[in-house]
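Batch job 17 of 40 flagged for manual review because the log was empty.
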Amino acid sequence: MTGIARFDGFERVPGTRKRYRLTAPLLWDVSKKGSNWTLILPPGTEFDISVPKCLEWVLDPRDRAVLPAAAIHDELLIRGHDPSVSSAEFRRAAVARGCSRRWGWVLFFSTLLWTAFGK
């Protein structure tokens, strides 16, 4: 099993621009590495990367560095978790994928605002 830093088990859903599907299981320790809560996303899980068109110059929705983070974020929302929790995990996963901590916080706040108020 590959850790999230090198996870590449996703593909774009044919005929879409911002919708993806996992092709391999994605495991994520929620809250901290080694927590007692591992989120398991099976192959076939679909998710999207909801970047407003006017902001695509800042974050490309095809940026493979943040796609697993988007899958984790969407799954937490689907399971009924608060946008602040799902946005925090988006930030953690993006940083684990190599995004800087500063960029991670920008992603957290923008994801939280978009999820809570923009959709």
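Reviewer: the log was empty due to a logging misconfiguration, but the result itself is present. Residues 52 and 114 are 9 Å apart (CA to CA). Unflagging and moving on to job 18.
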